[in-house]
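can u pls check wat happens w/ iron/sulfur cluster
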Amino acid sequence: MSNIQGNPCLACITGQHCCSRLSGLVLSADEFRLFFEGHRKELSIKQSNKAIIVSSINGNACPHWGESGCRIYLHRPIDCRVFPYVTARIIEKRSTVKIVFHSRSDCPLKNQLYRTMPEADIRNLLTELGKSVYGSAKSIVVQHERGYISRLQNRIEAAISRRLYQTGHK
Ligand code: SF4
Ligand code: SF4
């Protein structure tokens, strides 16, 4: 959920589903510990490489969502800050980690919101997320995935990277 001046989210026609139906939020271990550890019973929790992905059970709201919006708004996780951009993949390689985001979310006001969110800020935030998940030894590369070819390339890279790490070849 965004909170910009003249907040367009207040006119959201989806019932603010980005928070009221939490799905696939990407977190560092620190973010998880700080904000979601105490809510384990309300969440489905998965590990993807070193990131933690949380969704609500049965399409429920984020545990931090209340009548007046996000209760931790000023401290909310990075993946909440970049929405309606979507963190799509984290591809771990030998010395680099590629974080892929896209702008195909189903937020009805995304084009309006994107105008208030310089892409450089999104890249900086996702680099910060990458560093907090993988540490400073890895270089973080952030890519805006645009179009079918780039999506296909990233799928192939992700599959190769998973195989590399599953078989332990480094
Ligand atoms: S970010 Fe989009 S989906 Fe979320 S509350 Fe705002 S307008 Fe609605
Ligand atoms: S932490 Fe806040 S902004 Fe993030 S999903 Fe939950 S309610 Fe929404």
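Residues 9-167 form one domain.
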